[in-house]
Amino acid sequence: MFAKAPVAALVALGVLGTAQPASAETIGCVTTAWKLIGANHKVCVEAFADPKVPGVTCHVSQAKTGGVSGTLGLAQDPSQFSLACRQTGPISLPPKLPREDTVFSEDTSILFKETRVVRLWDEAHNTLVYLAISRKLIDGAPANSISTVPVMPWGGR
Fold first, then answer.
1. Structural domain count, the chain
2. Domain of 85?
3. Sorting pLDDT into bands at 50, 70 and 90, what band is 63?
4. What is the mean pLDDT of the chain?
5. Entry's InterPro entries (predicted)?
């Protein structure tokens, strides 16, 4: 149904989401396969701070496709990633923290595929749960990773 719809129309319909997730800082990349022409296949690690919860930093590693298509930005990266989130300072929860909110999003193909990190609030256990998923507009993807951050005092407090 959506395969022929223009991206602008999908954004207008809210299908691609309107969240303002954090931007990530690339920590580094490691080559996993050498390519004669174009960029090598690699795994890259990026860091981002939760935009609404100060004191939490997440690191996500993702496989990146190389070769000619990867160099030109036309390749579809595999749905292979890992996620680790930790308390890196005093955590300050905003009033009325949403139970679910997108905190990071990165396209993994030229159209309709992304890696997304969603923060879930487990109020009963006073824990922030970060879930990384691979989203495909048409058929979805089961790849996922999870990390939890219990909200605890920081330092001598």
1. 1
2. 25-150
3. confident
4. 78
5. Uncharacterised_CreA (IPR010292)
Flag whether 119 is in a domain.
yes
Q: What tokens appear for 112 in the block? A: 């309709």
Question: pTM above the 0.85 mark?
Answer: no
The answer to the question of residue 80 being in a domain is yes
**How is residue 8 annotated by DSSP?**
H
Q: What is the pLDDT of residues 16-30, one digit of tens each?
A: 344 466 678 999 989
Is position 11 within any domain? no
- 45, 149, 132, 64: CA torsion to nearest 10: 10
Tokens 């719809």, residue located:
5
Residue 8 is assigned to a structural domain of this protein: no
Cβ atoms 118, 105 nearer than 8 A: no
Per-residue pLDDT at 34: 84
